[in-house]
UniProtKB/TrEMBL annotation, chains A, B:
Enzyme class: oxidoreductase
Domain Acyl-CoA oxidase/dehydrogenase middle intervals: 160-268
EC number: 1.3.3.6
Matches recorded under PANTHER family: ELECTRON TRANSPORT OXIDOREDUCTASE
Cofactor(s) essential for the protein: FAD
Highest classification ranks of the organism: Bacteria, Bacillati, Actinomycetota, Actinomycetes, Propionibacteriales
Keywords: FAD, Fatty acid metabolism, Flavoprotein, Lipid metabolism, Oxidoreductase, Peroxisome
Pfam families to which the protein is assigned, alphabetical: ACOX, ACOX_C_alpha1, Acyl-CoA_dh_M, Acyl-CoA_dh_N
Sequence similarity: Belongs to the acyl-CoA oxidase family.
Protein name per Swiss-Prot or TrEMBL: acyl-CoA oxidase
Natural source organism: Nocardioides daedukensis
Keyword presence, Flavoprotein: yes
Single Gene Ontology MF annotation: fatty acid binding
């Protein structure tokens, strides 16, 4: 942001130093705080209130993260997790048969709200109920459910999700742990084949977990059937189970209340029924059976359960951004520094144009992501409840979950950093919350899928039109797939051409649509977002194809086009976010709140266009004067939002007890 | 970076997926590592080697930051500081009379190199020798030197630099602590007038400091003479001195080996000679005397001693960036992930185009900042040695120090973050170094001057041509000053017009200079940087003037033009950095190293232009095709630098003992 340079009009008139004309007659809205908060809480207001209550109940854990010893704090976090489980909060997403309410949406909303609290607690709950419990629920059969889920839900049985290995972070298909079927004893034998093939960063492994869902290559009679999940005891009476070696992963940048560990397996025998067999099974005689024919698709169907983790992490990431902005904006609305007319107090930080520019576009994007998350939560709920489970729907959902997670967690990292700097030295003190916020969220861009890899996944889906053999295609497969088609076919297949048709519907005027529409015309925003997405997809398809046609190695082609491919992911997800925000605002009855949300929407849309204005100019969709006018409009929107900013963060409904940062929020009260 | 989108040419030819034509005939250089390292170490190779030896000697402290208790670690850091002092390292910058070598340059180079080690040690040394010792040296007379400096240099007397107050971070002129002269007893009486006017974040205050240089408003007979510095005992026999209240500032995000504290003074009496009186004194009778007439200039002359702190923090920030890149690049050059031709091992991370794009432009900027820092160190040395001490020189130096500090520390924050993410989950483990690197450096963008405020300072200097009353002008003063002149006068005064003259000299061709020059022509780079700087300065002057002319309040004018003002700071400092890098490369005899540095220089120049390409397009200095060609050229430069990247980070000469991160650097060796 800091290098953005403002604009003067060619005519010499300088609206950025004169009152904006269109401000004449503009009525500044007043926020109805209760209504806005209720809108944000949405369908799951009750769940969120329960979580807020639990957060306040356990607010001490935020301070204890600093005062307790390493193991003490881990135990304390475990206790909080178990105690929250006692309130029923963690049962939400599980089957009714096990005392849950089968509400995936409720579980996501709960996790999202937990993002306001200590994030070790959040992540330990994610490991226990989302990953460990979720794997049993989604990959296991009803006997597995009955046997394990009640104790999982209550926190009596703590467990791990043992997927990642030291040698293979993002490339799960290549992991090395092996489960060999022994038909004589009707057991699987789990082995870590080399010293470096240990399971790494496994939450709950170092101290508390008794059981693990272990992902391993299934081998029967020397034949590999690909990666499958097994329930394996790893700790008995507080000691590693026979054949299991456990090491502590060691101190981390943050999240030190979660006991991540490493696991090695040496001939660990588990019964045949320990295979989570919803998608594939082995008969007692050792015959492999699966309703899904392609091993690749089978693998990705199993991995599809990861979608929930990604949905949750993206949501929690945005909650962390809300926390950071709540502190920074409320501080800037109290703190005075420099500059006063004679005798007047110093000026409030938030009255500085640059300070508005730093924080308010981030606030707008946080709102945009909130509503995008709401749509994603709803779609995930429908997929998991079976309300909508056809394969296309599921693939689009996986892509959306991956992309939203990447966008939201990058946004979170950036927002927390900017907010910390905006609070100066006080922002550096642990009690003022940013220390934990920064350290704990930092890994969000990496876990549940590295953001860069996730954005490639999104692009791959678009480029191949979610081709039926998409799932087992790696990047080189994608290059070959795209190269094998006519570019027109790619564009035709991918639905991307619909984007452009829609642009023409929105803004008639042929090739001049971008020049004639008003800057605040929502159709202009949508047209710009869609044009960018379509152009990037078809452009990347052309470049991939041309590279291969010219005889370059697919790996080299991919490497050279990779930044273009990743840009597709950004453009696509940003368009989905815009659509969600537009739909939400349009659905509201007229009110001041609608006006205020409209300002945020405009700010989000124009800031995104501004960030990409070089690209739009390069592609003939933005003239210089118009580009400068956008920057001026953004400044004007910031000035309109400035008096609303305090209410807009209050509407997030973060309990004061978990904000801490008293020093920042009560500045000058003394 | 991630949203950068690549380009295809209008003609349909796509150089980004075809081998670059101009690569034909291009000879890949081979780095002469010893020569490159010696070039980087420069004039102070001997000092740097001493520091490296001390770093290795005390390398354990990096791990102890994680294993020791809070107070234990603080004491350990103190012991390291004292032990390093015993090697003579910390005497370098002090007068020969006190056993120093009067080498400000050597002291800066030492501090820069210390940036490879634990940063609590670095900052505690900065507090002790730079701020506390530096204040006595630069603000005191020879008696103060003789009385205090020997014990300061040896670490026997630990002290504080008590400037910042709770209520006033950046606005030092407004601080509230008062020193009242009592002519009867010939003493000053130090008081904290309100509970909230405590000195805050004061290093060495909470545990180890016995003495503090306290900045307070000097009052004589009810008249305030502005802020002055006094030597005040704060701790005797490990207890607060009479009248002094000390509190621990509490846990911080990082740098927890430094004992920051809060100080309150209640009628603390110190002798008249405790005033550091180089720039102003009080006679025994209570008459105020100063060779500097203007109170504002006097204040800023005293503050001028802060310049050294800024020079040092910028340097250390870039060292932290070097550390992060060393780890991330060496890891990416070993770590394989995804994608392999059949039977081949997975591809190295650094062979991915996106990974090159993430890291190599940051490497280029780190090199650029290194050489810019070298120039700044040299200029600072000359100012402090008295070799060059006229006022204009000093003001330009202060501006340069402020801007370089801001640019380097923002670069450091960004580079560390990008490098952490590029190392995935392993980058999140404390033993792999990024945890401390991130947490400890985070405040660099804030302390010794908030970066945003510093960039304003740079712009203010340019806009007012370092006017003689510049020093005591706040932002509103600047607005009024600029408004009071004809814009032509501003431009004339500021030397900015010389920028444009130089552009015309460099690239004849009238208004088409930007279109005709080759993208790798250094004159093109310089012309673009200078055009931007000039245009921003004169544009901002016009907007400020117009705003006031139109009757807007100066505060409102400033708020609206603030992002433009800050953009001036960026443009100016980036141009200085480019100039320093160009001068360095041009000064080298022909060699492969020169070719390699030339690639880095081109990459730095083009990346900076690319980051601002929207601005250049808006201002008619870049066409779409040329903008896209720049992005392609950057990708091509990254591919050329890729095989050199390992050597380019090795040349920083970071001792392996302080890198830690063994897991990342030896990946796959097992």
């Amino acid at each position: 942001m800091a290098t953005e340079t403002p604009a003067t009009t060619e005519s010499g008139k300088d609206p950025a130093t004169t009152p904006d004309d269109h401000e004449t007659g503009y009525l500044q809205p007043e926020i109805d705080l209760a209504a806005l908060r209720s809108l944000l809480d949405g369908d799951y207001a009750e769940v969120r209130e329960l979580v807020r209550k639990n957060l306040v109940e356990n607010a001490d854990v935020l301070e204890e993260a600093e005062t307790l010893g390493h193991d003490e704090f881990r135990d304390r976090v475990r206790d909080v997790v178990v105690s929250v489980a006692g309130t029923g909060q963690t049962a939400l997403g599980f089957p009714k048969a096990q005392g849950g309410s089968n509400s995936t949406g409720g579980a996501i909303a709960a996790f999202e709200t937990m993002g306001f609290g200590d994030l070790s607690v959040l992540v330990k709950m994610g490991v226990q109920f989302g990953l460990f419990g979720g794997a049993i629920q989604n990959l296991g059969n009803e006997e597995h459910h009955a046997k394990y889920l009640p104790d999982v839900i209550s926190g009596k049985l703590l467990g791990c999700f043992a997927m990642t290995e030291g040698g293979h972070g993002s490339n799960v298909q290549a992991l090395e742990t092996v489960a060999t079927y022994d038909a004589d004893s009707q057991e699987f034998v789990i082995n870590t084949p080399t010293e470096s093939a240990y399971k790494d960063y496994i939450g709950n492994a170092a101290r508390h977990g008794e059981m693990a869902v272990v992902f391993a290559q299934l081998e029967i009679d020397g034949k590999s059937e690909g990666v499958h999940a097994f329930v394996v005891p790893i700790r008995i009476d507080n000691k590693p189970a026979p054949g299991v070696r456990i090491e502590d992963s060691g101190l981390k940048m943050g999240l030190n209340g979660v006991d991540n560990g490493r696991l090695w397996f040496d001939g660990v025998r588990i019964p045949r029924t320990a295979l989570l067999n919803r998608f594939a099974d082995v008969t007692p005689e050792g015959v492999y059976e699966s309703p899904i024919e392609s091993p690749g698709r089978r693998f990705f169907t199993m991995l599809g359960t990861l979608v929930l983790g990604r949905v949750c992490i993206g949501a929690a990431g945005n909650s962390a951004a809300k926390m950071a902005l709540t502190i920074a904006i409320k501080y800037a609305d109290r703190r005075r520094q420099f500059e006063s007319a004679d005798g007047e107090p110093e000026q409030l930080l938030l009255d500085y144009g640059q300070h508005q520019r730093r924080l308010l576009p981030l606030l707008a994007k946080t709102y945009a992501l909130h509503f995008a998350q709401e749509v994603l939560t709803d779609q995930t709920h429908k997929a998991f409840s079976g309300e909508n489970d056809d394969e296309d729907y599921r693939r689009a959902l996986e892509s959306r979950a991956a992309g939203t997670k990447a966008l939201a967690t990058w946004h979170s990292t950036r927002t927390i950093q900017e907010s910390r700097e905006a609070c100066g030295g006080a922002g550096y003190m642990s009690r003022n919350r940013f220390a934990a916020l920064k350290a704990d969220t930092d890994v969000f861009t990496t876990f549940e899928g590295d953001n860069t890899v996730l954005m490639q996944l999104v692009a791959k889906g678009l480029l191949t039109g979610y081709a039926s053999d998409f799932s087992d295609m790696d990047q080189l497969g994608m290059v070959r797939f795209v190269a094998g088609m006519a570019v027109e076919t790619v564009v035709e297949r991918t639905n991307v051409h619909k984007l452009l048709e829609r642009v023409r519907d929105l803004l008639p005027g042929d090739d001049e649509w971008d020049q004639e529409a008003g800057l605040l015309d929502p159709n202009f925003h949508e047209a710009m977002f869609r044009f960018r997405e379509e152009h990037l997809v078809s452009g990347a398809a052309r470049r991939l194809k041309r590279g291969v046609d010219q005889g370059m190695e697919p790996a080299e082609v991919f490497s050279r086009v990779q930044d273009h491919v990743i840009a597709i992911g950004h453009a696509h997800v940003e368009r989905l976010v815009l659509d969600a925000f537009v739909d939400k605002v349009q659905s509201l009855p007229d009110s001041d709140n609608k006006v205020a949300l409209g300002l945020l929407l405009d700010l989000f849309a124009l800031t995104t266009i501004e960030e990409n204005r070089a690209w739009f100019m390069e592609h003939g969709r933005l003239t210089s004067p118009r580009s400068k006018a956008i920057s001026r409009e953004i400044n004007s929107l910031c000035r309109k939002l400035r008096p609303l900013a305090g209410d807009l963060v209050d509407a997030f409904g973060i309990p004061p007890e978990v904000i801490r940062a008293e020093e920042l929020l009560t500045w000058g009260d003394a």
